[in-house]
Design brief:
The protein has 18 helices and 29 strands. The protein is α/β, with parallel strands linked by helices. The chain has four domains: 110 residues, Methane Monooxygenase Hydroxylase, Chain G, domain 1, CATH 1.20.58; 195 residues, Polyphosphate kinase middle domain (polyphosphate kinase like, 2-Layer Sandwich); 177 residues, Endonuclease, Chain A (2-Layer Sandwich); 187 residues, Endonuclease, Chain A (2-Layer Sandwich), CATH 3.30.870.10. The strands form five sheets. Strands 16, 20, 21, 22, 23, 25, 26, 27, 28 and 29 form a ten-stranded mixed beta sheet that branches. Strands 12, 13, 14, 15, 17, 18, 19 and 24 form an eight-stranded mixed beta sheet that branches. The protein is 34% helix and 21% strand. The radius of gyration is 28 Å and the shape is globular.
Length: 725
């Protein structure tokens, strides 16, 4: 009698063992950043840059993520994350994983990068190694330029322990009164208003006949060796450098705030003072008494203390990128203008009133065909910025509406909106006041825009407006036409040179109508629940993405191929991850290009063995989001502002657009294929959570996706980037 076919046991796709920790996954991303600093193939000053970025990233991580976990522990929160960890579990594992990284970073800087810099004529010196002449120079420098700025703060019964500001470098100083024999403790802040590294003049630079580009000493060492001027009549016993990090995250009670702008301004003032301390960085030589004093006064435990060998606050190394040493940097890159836009005349001041005008029509290019922009390979200033600037002065443009999440301090785009309002156009700007660490900048822009007649709104209560969209309404003959820009990155000319982002310029009626509805949702009262083409969070984005994944599952179940490629900054959402696991079990081939956090565990037999995850870390920060679904040969491809994270899908306003132009869809597939074959900057995620760097095989050439894309921008072959007929 034939044996009955055994059914496979059902797998619980919400099992915590199938998910990586969000916090630990972020640490792995920052470890990949550190590896760029360690990689000898990376130019020397670029290695210094990645060292600085690693430190800067950690500062924000402690200010926001670690501080949140500590608050949860304090509140006795025991809720488990999807990976099955409590807040205390996460803090313990963060400490265990991070300490070796920090040790590796500082050891590499002291033993490898610092000597290599000296070989190239860049000498970051220690005070103890200076000549007498150099010391005399620094003493005069201290007296004239540093001493007047300093404020020593005593700690005794009459002087309570001072407030230590966030991210500040400080000297803990012990002095002895020669008359009474009493020892006293004082704190001296290293002022961040002064240069971190004090350079010697030319006549004090040469070393043993070597060519010297720069030589100098850290500011804190100059201060430490001249303390007697701060404490006259006292004997300096010892001094020790330390640095603290405070909680800098805040929540505004939006429902209780009568004025959101004023409420955020108040919270910014609190942030400047800083919340509770979350990290203390000291040097290993710091005596036990000093260590314990600082821990007690700052309310810390041993788990909050990080010992650092050598210089503290390595993010200040970024200043050395300005040295005139091009051979120690990446080859320079100048973004190009897409061929279809090169014929558009540059803006010239021609009117009698001195106003900026143009004789050529930027909009006619968009009317001919949708245009894909890929920054920083394509110039931001000559495309997106020019689009908004021309709209601002075009007499046929009736209205401009756009979202501003982060922009630069001298934004020409904001100035263009002001110009448009002054020309009598209807201008609406949604300025997101809650963009973390850009709140103050955005408040300043909001006030200036409002004073110029721009309609400024601050978004929706309980939601951040993260979407990147522009809507231009133009009168053309007897009809109204709407032009749109839908992007993946901020309207920031500075970061547009550093981040990879995509943007779509189009005048398709359905996209224009959708953006009109979206802006009405953002600026007025609306419960818009359906859009013609756009996928919008928190309305329908997660559900639509899940439906697109399930469609690939259905194709596989019907004997057809299933294929998904998704590029994003972070993959955290448990519902989408579980659906991707289902797709893999059905046989869908899935490639994920996730720069940062990835909580999905790839390569698990019977669960995710058809899923591959790579991360690309290179000279440009990978920031674009692309979502591709094969759909049995009827490809669907999308770009937009949202990562697959609960915050993006539930607590932010996001917009993702389908690509309706077949030539652009082909171009995006080519970009995805180039990224997937990177064997220079790519790392592949393993089932155990480790990332393995990709190298070319013996018969392969080195293939950097970003280098290839730069070459393609210089030599375009895409039919969407050809001159107009």
């Amino acid at each position: 009698m034939p044996r009955a076919k055994e059914s496979k046991p059902e797998i619980n796709l919400h099992d915590p063992t199938l998910y990586f920790s969000r916090e630990l996954s972020w640490l792995e991303f920052n470890h990949r950043v550190l590896q760029e600093a360690l990689d000898p193939r990376t130019p020397l000053l670029e290695r210094l840059k990645f060292t600085a970025i690693f430190s800067s990233n950690l500062d924000e991580y402690f200010m926001v993520r670690v501080s949140t976990l500590k608050e949860q522990v304090e509140a006795q929160v025991s809720r488990l994350t999807p990976d099955g960890r409590t807040p205390q579990d996460q803090l313990s594992e963060i400490s265990d994983r991070l300490r070796p990284m920090v040790t590796e970073q500082h050891r590499h800087f002291e033993r490898e990068l610092r000597p290599r810099l000296a070989e190239e004529g860049v000498h970051i010196l220690n005070y103890m190694d200076l000549s007498q002449e150099q010391r005399f120079y620094l003493q005069r420098y201290f007296e004239e330029r540093i001493f007047p700025v300093l404020t020593p703060l005593a700690v005794d019964p009459g002087h309570p322990f001072p407030h230590i500001s966030n991210l500040s470098l400080n000297l803990a100083v012990f002095v002895k009164d020669p008359e009474t024999g009493e020892e006293h403790f004082a704190r001296v802040k290293v002022p961040n208003i002064l240069p971190r590294f004090i350079a010697f003049p030319d006549e004090l630079r040469p070393y043993n006949g070597q060519h010297t580009v720069w030589s100098g000493v850290p500011l804190e060492q100059v201060m430490a060796h001249n303390l007697e001027l701060l404490f006259p009549g006292m004997n300096i016993q010892e001094y020790h450098l330390f640095r603290i990090t405070r909680d800098a995250d805040f929540e505004v009670q939006e429902y209780e705030a009568d004025d959101l702008l004023l409420a955020i301004e108040q919270e910014l003032r609190r942030r400047r003072l800083g919340g509770f301390v979350v990290r203390l960085e000291i040097q290993p030589s710091t005596p036990k008494l000093v260590r314990e004093t600082l821990m007690r006064e700052l309310g810390l435990t041993e788990g909050d203390v990080y010992e650092v060998e050598g210089l503290l606050n390595l993010k200040d190394l970024m200043s050395f990128l300005s040295l005139p040493l091009p051979e120690l940097k990446d080859p320079p890159w100048s973004p190009v203008i897409p061929t279809r836009l090169k014929w558009v005349g540059e803006l010239e001041t021609t009117s009698e009133r001195g106003e900026t005008e143009t004789s050529d029509d930027f909009f006619s290019v968009i009317r001919q065909q949708d245009l894909l922009l890929h920054h920083p390979y394509h110039s931001f200033s000559a495309t997106v910025q020019q689009f908004i600037m021309q709209a601002a002065i075009d007499p046929d443009v009736l209205a401009i509406k756009m979202t501003l999440y982060r922009t630069s301090g001298d934004s020409p785009i904001v100035n263009a909106l002001i110009t448009a309002a002054e020309h009598g156009k209807q201008v609406a700007a949604l300025v997101e006041l809650k963009a973390r660490f850009d709140e103050e900048n955005n408040i300043n822009w909001a006030r200036r825009l409002e004073s110029s007649g721009v309609h400024v709104v601050y978004g929706l209560v309980g939601l951040k407006t993260h979407t990147k969209v522009v809507l231009v309404v133009r009168q053309e003959g007897d009809r109204i036409r709407r032009y749109v820009h839908i992007g993946t990155g901020n309207y920031n000319p500075k970061t547009a040179k550093l981040y990879t982002d995509l943007g779509l310029l189009s005048c398709r009626e359905e996209l224009g109508a959708d953006l009109t509805d979206l802006f009405n949702f953002l600026t007025g009262y609306s419960r818009q629940q359906s859009y013609r083409k756009l996928l919008v969070a928190p309305v329908n984005l997660r559900d639509r993405m899940i439906a697109l994944i399930r469609r690939e599952i259905d194709h596989c179940n019907n004997g057809k191929p299933g294929r998904i490629i998704a590029k994003m900054n972070a993959l955290v959402d448990p519902k989408l991850i579980a659906t991707l696991y289902e797709a893999s079990q059905a046989g869908v081939e899935i490639d994920l290009i996730v720069r940062g956090i990835c909580c999905l565990r790839p390569g698990l037999d019977g669960i995710s063995n058809t899923i591959r995850v790579i991360s690309i870390v290179g000279r440009h920060l990978e920031h674009s989001r692309i979502f591709y679904f094969h759909n049995n040969g009827q490809d669907d491809i999308f770009i937009g502002s949202a990562d697959w994270m609960p915050r993006n899908l539930d607590r932010r306003v996001e917009a993702v657009t389908p690509i309706l132009d077949t030539a652009i869809a082909t171009e995006l597939r080519e970009i995805l294929n180039i990224l997937l074959t990177d064997n220079r900057q790519a790392w592949e995620l393993q089932p155990d959570g480790e990332y393995v760097r990709q190298y070319p095989s013996k018969d392969e050439a080195e293939h950097s996706a970003q280098t290839v894309l730069m070459h393609m921008a210089m030599h375009p072959t895409s039919p969407t980037d050809q001159p107009p007929a």
